[in-house]
Amino acid sequence: MRIDIVSVIPEILKGPFSNSIIKRAINKKIIEIYLHDLRKYGLGKRKKVDDYPYGGGSGMVIRIEPVYRCFHKLFSERNYDEKIFMTPDGNIFSQKYAYEFSCKKNIIILCGRYKGIDQRIRENLISKEISIGPYVLSGGELAAAVVVEAVTRLLPGVLNNPDSMITDTFQIGSIPPPPLYTRPLIYKGLSVPRILLSGHHQKIKDWFYKKSILKKKI
Ligand code: 6GU
Q1: Is 164 among the domain residues?
Q2: Which atom of ligand 1 is nearest to the CA of 132?
Q3: What per-residue confidence (pLDDT) applies to 216?
Q4: Among 137, 141, 147, 148, which is best to mutate for testing ligand 1, by the most ligand atoms less than 8 A from CB?
């Protein structure tokens, strides 16, 4: 899978992509991630990407030309199955979207900044508008990192133990994971439930199931 991310501050995304799961997926060549600096496609000597809103109002708006140029350069190189705009007023991201995106070959993610972007970009260059929750961030970069992480871990070969993916909390239709314990057996008087040391596999399974059900929010 290939993901192209377009942003005015692509540096924000370098950290999240150079560690852990995503780094491993890149090294294994399961995913390719390319960061594009929108400013490179900006106007004039100062590489301007934003302007004042028509009709007045505070804040700056991202202009269509830089986005159009950047997108069309990429469109000329390959087909994109999804063109996602990260925005606080988009559809709330969920595991369902993570699955959907993980089945695509090429996707572009455009990160918003400033007050917003020209509506013509949203209506003509974008196929999905996504938010990661009901709160406002200064830009879509961290939200894009969340989407990429959720998608990457679903790609075959990324997780060492696919079984752990199946039992993850938010896998659709599953119950939450039970409480987990590891060594030491007792720490400052806090001990691990004895049942887990009993060796009774069926009883342990039943106990885990009961604890999971109890955690489920209805
Ligand atoms: Cl995608 N962008 C911004 N700026 N804020 C957000 C968001 C996205 N999702 C939740 N808050």
Answers
A1: no
A2: 9
A3: 72
A4: 137
- From residue 177, alpha-carbon distances to 25, 156, 165, 208, 215 in Å are 25, 22, 11, 8, 8
pLDDT band at 215 (very low <50, low <70, confident <90, very high): confident
Residue 166: inside a domain, yes or no?
no
In a domain, 167, yes or no: no
**Residue 181 binned pLDDT confidence (cut-offs 50, 70, 90):** very high
Could you tell me which of 88, 89, 86, 81 has the C-alpha nearest to residue 67?
86
Task: Give residue 210 CA to ligand 1 midpoint distance, Å.
Answer: 37
pLDDT at 172: 66
**Could you tell me the distance, in angstroms and rounded to a whole number, from the CA of residue 89 to the centre of ligand 1?**
8
- As for how many domains the chain has, the answer is 2
97 pLDDT more than 60? yes
Q: Do residue 144 and residue 181 come from a single domain?
A: no
* Domain that includes residue 182, residue range: 175-217
pTM across the whole model: 0.92
Is 201 contained in some domain?
A: yes
Burial 170-209 (b: 16+ CB within 10 A, else e): eeeeebbebeeeeeeeeeeeeeeeeebeeeeeeebeebbe
